[in-house]
Design brief:
Layout lengths: L1 E5 L3 H13 L3 E5 L2 H11 L5 E5 L7 H10 L6 E5 L4 H9 L4 E4 L4 H12 L10 E2 L4 E4 L4 E4 L2 E2 L4 H12 L5 E2 H8 L7 H15 L9 E4 L3 E4 L3
Parallel strand pairs: 1-2, 1-3, 3-4, 4-5
Antiparallel strand pairs: 6-7, 7-8, 8-9, 10-12, 11-12
């Protein structure tokens, strides 16, 4: 598997590269944001995961991630931040990052998160499901379409939606979503799930007749499918 490291701290980048190679990953490293983005755009089909710093020369990690997602590229992204501020973490998730890690961190934790993001989710063996008259979910093809157009979801957004589809018309707790979709302890994990749910609503369930992703106060969520 190919992992792209985009980190301008060369000592840290080399340390990450070393521990990943010990796990038999193929690794590419960039220290410049603009150069890294160009490489990612061209080679995105060969890249399995990106470790992306926020503070980078020429183009920062937020801009890179947002541009990549706008082009429909769904490579899993582990974002690195030097700030332990919730707004930075939430911003990263809003623009399409799948997870974040605050510096300084232990390489063992980084490796655990990498393995979690690379974990292949179980296929949802089913025919295409009509969520609403305009929205279709295809678990086997791992696609979601709205009004005939494929909607770009991050791997984590798709995994959460898939889990809700599997439990359609059931009240599913945030804890249950976390246990199924995340493999590691995370501070503020409930907020992380809320951000992904908000993104799903923004991308898919925008009209009154599409409001099928319900919040169950004090518990979690229910996907109401007729």
């Amino acid at each position: 598997m190919k992992i792209l490291i985009i980190e301008d701290n060369r000592n840290l980048a080399k340390s990450i590269e070393r521990v990943l190679k010990q796990e038999n990953f193929s690794v590419g490293t960039f220290w410049n944001g603009l150069e890294a983005e160009k490489f990612w755009l061209i080679n995105n089909k060969e890249i399995d995961l990106v470790i992306l710093d926020i503070q980078l020369p020429e183009k920062n990690g937020f801009e890179i991630c947002q541009n990549i997602r706008e082009k429909g590229i769904s490579t899993p992204v582990l974002m690195l931040t030097a700030k332990n501020e919730l707004e930075d973490k939430v911003k990263g998730l809003h623009i399409g990052a799948d997870d974040y890690l605050t510096k300084p961190f232990k390489l063992e934790e980084l490796l655990a998160r990498v393995h979690a993001l690379l974990r292949r989710p179980k296929m949802f063996k089913t025919k295409k499901i009509e969520l609403t008259k305009n929205i279709f979910f295809d678990g086997a093809a791992r696609k979601v379409a709205k009004s005939g157009n494929e909607i770009s979801l991050t791997p984590k957004e798709f995994e959460i939606l898939e889990f809700l589809v599997q439990h359609k018309n059931e009240a599913v707790s945030q804890q249950k979503i976390f246990d199924h979709c995340f493999d590691f302890a995370k501070e503020n994990w409930s907020n992380t799930i809320e951000v992904h749910i908000k993104n799903l609503r923004k991308k898919l369930f925008t009209n009154d007749d599409e409001q099928i992703l319900k919040t169950i106060r004090g518990l979690g969520y229910r996907l109401e499918i007729k």
